[in-house]
Write a structure and sequence with these properties.
The protein is α+β, with helices and mostly antiparallel strands. It is built from 13 helices and 16 strands.
């Protein structure tokens, strides 16, 4: 039966449909306004020239925006199509490339790398593909005397890695290793006969329609390319120059826009690129030789936030920083790119994510009774000194005395931007081995709230400290 509408009824129906489908939902508009406010506060508070952000739910973009400037000298605004350097977020693509080869039977996770790199030094005996992916091989970062302005062929880079001593015993711990991922790129070349960047283009970028994604090239004309910056004594400067070939390695040397990353996230969500077993392996926690599960998978950070799992990867290179966080339980993902070295994109992605998933917010965590006010007072003093760059060596025990204290000036640059410490509240206390106690605090600064975990030895020296979720 056909229903015939009067002219007036048809007009009313068209108006209703317009209201329903053409006007944005008030809730979405409110969320976008909160994102705008949050990101703009970071833009101003951290003196970041430009930020690009995208939010994806169920593999679909629900927000993609640019803030600030992609190029300060030419006053070019950031937009969703703006291309940034990936930093180590690019390692996520290297992992997928390796797992593609695993799925195709061209290599195995537990193959020793000397099977493919036949001239590997004896020190690399027993190092497997899995160890490189997990950062448990013992390979470390670039040596202190490594000259980033000297151009090298892939083989010359490989020879430099061969000559670099291992930093720790195989599987002893998870030690973040750029050299391990450079080696994975060389391994891809050996197995496929293709430069790792060409492999990514052929197998990931082109099939997914990631039109802005490619290996870095400062010589080529790159549409929508952002410029990178750094702060020197509070003054904005252009990024430092590195040799061209050092911007082509598999430890994270890609150009990407947030729209490119949204297409990558859509593929991860749909599990299009890899077998189910490979996805499971990629996001399974590393277990070190002592039998302890670490909060890391194949390079991805697996974080516990308010009893929820967040999987992410951060990066920073030259004048850029980036962070990509995924909240699998809610099919939610956020990517943030910035064009300022030393900026904190993790805070941006996490803050934006809590706007869409309030259960992850700092405020959602209940406090506990503080039975050791003297320890909290020491923690407060530490946080104040951290931002003021007045830390003293006597406050620390290893490894903090080797990791935090020598880097206090660089750390102070970021923490000082948070403003004055307003309050600190104990959220958790855990007994560790050898008398070490772990305290988790909610710290509120004038410009930022964050979670901070501080470990104290039995003689009340700080052995470790790290921000958790801010």
């Amino acid at each position: 039966m056909k229903i015939r509408l009067s002219h007036h009824a048809r007009s009313l129906l068209i108006f209703v449909l317009f209201v329903l489908f053409c006007i944005p939902a008030a809730g979405q508009t409110d969320l976008e306004a909160k994102v705008d406010e949050y990101v703009k506060n970071h833009l101003a508070g951290e003196k970041i020239p430009g930020i690009s952000v995208a939010v994806m739910r169920e593999g679909k973009v629900i927000l993609a925006k640019g803030y600030g400037l992609a190029n300060v000298e030419h006053n070019v605004p950031v937009k969703p199509e703006t291309v940034f350097q990936s930093g180590s977020v690019g390692k996520a693509f290297t992992v997928v490339a390796i797992m593609m080869l695993v799925d195709e039977g061209k290599l195995k996770l537990d193959d020793e790398i000397k099977k493919y790199l036949t001239d590997a030094p004896p020190e690399w005996d027993r190092i497997t593909v899995r160890h490189l992916l997990q950062h448990t091989s013992g390979m470390g970062g670039y040596p202190d005397d490594f000259d980033f302005r000297q151009d090298r062929s892939e083989d010359e880079i490989y020879q430099s890695i061969r000559a670099t001593p291992l930093a720790f015993e195989l599987g002893e711990k998870r030690g973040y290793s750029n050299l391990g991922f450079v080696t994975l790129g060389i391994l891809i070349h050996k197995v496929t006969g293709k430069f790792y960047g060409d492999f990514l283009k052929e197998r990931i970028f082109t099939p997914l329609g990631m039109t802005g994604a490619r290996v870095i090239s400062e010589a080529d004309i790159i549409p929508n390319r952002a410029s990178g910056y750094r702060l020197v004594d509070g003054e904005l400067k252009n990024q430092e120059w590195v040799a061209p070939t050092l911007n082509t390695t598999a430890d994270g040397a890609l150009y990407l826009s947030v729209l490119d990353m949204a297409k990558f996230e859509a593929a991860l969500h749909a599990k299009k690129l890899l077998s189910p077993a490979s996805y499971d392996a990629m996001w399974k926690k590393v277990v070190t030789n002592d039998g302890v599960a670490q909060p890391w998978g194949f390079s991805w950070h697996i974080k516990d936030v308010n009893d929820k799992t967040i999987v992410g990867h951060s990066g920073g290179w030259q004048g850029f920083t980036a962070n990509f966080d995924r909240y699998p339980e809610k099919d939610l993902a956020v990517i943030a790119f910035t064009n300022r070295r030393g900026a904190n994109p993790e805070a941006i992605t996490k803050g934006v994510m809590t706007i869409f998933a309030p259960e992850l917010s700092i405020e959602a965590i209940p406090g506990i009774e503080d039975k050791e006010p003297q320890i909290t007072a020491t923690a407060r003093d530490f946080l104040v000194r951290l931002g003021a760059n007045t830390l003293e060596a006597s406050m620390f025990a290893p490894p903090a005395s080797e990791d935090i204290f020598p880097n206090r000036s660089q750390i102070a640059e970021r923490w000082g931007s948070f403003g004055e410490l307003q309050s600190i509240e104990l959220l958790a206390r855990t007994e560790k081995e050898d008398g070490v106690r772990e305290y988790r605090y909610r710290a509120e600064f004038a410009k930022r709230k964050l979670l901070i975990t501080i470990r104290f030895t039995k003689d009340n020296k700080i052995s470790d400290a790290f921000p958790d979720w801010d």
